[in-house]
Amino acid sequence: xxxxxxxxxxxxxxxxxxxxxxxxxxxxxxxxxxxxxxxxxxxxxxxxxxxxxxxxxxxxxxxxxxxxxxxxxxxxxxxxxxxxxxxxxxxxxxxxxxxxxxxxxxxxxxxxxxxxxxxxxxxxxxxxxxxxxxxxxxxxxxxxxxxxxxxxxxxxxxxxxxxxxxxxxxxxxxxxxxxxxxxxxxxxxxxxxxxxxxxxxxxxxxxxxxxxxxxxxxxxxxxxxxxxxxxxxxxxxxxxxxxxxxxxxxxxxxxxxxxxxxxxxxxxxxxxxxxxxxxxxxxxxxxxxxxxxxxxxxxxxxxxxxxxxxxxxxxxxxxxxxxxxxxxxxxxxxxxxxxxxxxxxxxxxxxxxxxxxxxxxxxxxxxxxxxxxxxxxxxxxx
Length: 382
Fold this sequence. Notes:
Layout: H1 2-8, H2 10-15, H3 23-53, H4 55-59, E1 66-71, H5 76-91, E2 94-99, H6 102-111, E3 120-124, H7 126-134, E4 137-138, E5 165-177, E6 199-202, H8 209-221, H9 227-237, E7 241-245, H10 248-256, E8 262-266, H11 270-274, E9 280-283, E10 289-299, H12 305-315, H13 318-326, H14 341-344, H15 351-354, E11 357-358, H16 362-367, H17 369-380
Parallel strand pairs: 1-2, 1-3, 6-7, 10-11
Antiparallel strand pairs: 3-10, 4-10, 5-8, 5-9, 5-10
């Protein structure tokens, strides 16, 4: 009878005045089974709810923290767009920038060694080496950098000891006004008569200042080691100079105001020079270009070491390296960045150009810094 009622359908079974023996017991067992299952799911439900209520605590472990950077600040609008804002939004942190040239920022960090405030430091040229000697930067931890294997080998440890990473490769080249002077093809051409009063070069204390001596030595003495010749030629060249610039922004102003017709320029400044829309051409002189890395380091004494590494890794990411390259700010060190030809032509990019780069010993440059500064002052304070 029970089987027949089940076959007849649920409504008929419900209406039946008779129930088979053991039916109530089966209902109790089913009920108990449901209750047990519900209680067994309670921990899972609460765990899931907790994850949904507190997603940011897991996704943003550094939320609310502040990261202090020491860097140049040149082209800060693009650095904010491509680097700072994406990092702040992704990790819920605040980035505070202390800006200035290498010398000023280096001096501040040394003065505050006993109570450091900087977490990540950017340097270039001999200043990076000097930072290791003064103990204001510390070795990085490769295990905290997921993008380290994606950059060119020479950028991974340019100072030795894992004190810094080259986050961008740069060069010092020559540019000139094609409508004002004869073509420039050599560093010797900076002495041409049509440049008298319309030439500027980087001051000796800047990142690329010492490199001018090496390039003049090569151009006129046949060797980078012929620095006595280089200094002689600099003294002769001083008659052609309008001024010596300290910051690339000063060079941009001189070009925009049409006060200079030729200059050695840093590749990171080329985008702003082009923005002048003046007829300016950049060239690879026959003696070659000056090559260098701008480096990024973990500051000694930082209380935010893990966050500092996270920012360094961010600087090496595909997204940041590509964005900076496309805006003509920094040339990439990642080996997987493929750039359009019109962008690549204005950066330190491509095998042909990189083969023309001359890299100078930072330790040697630091060793002669005081002597060369005295020589410079002897020429330009006459």
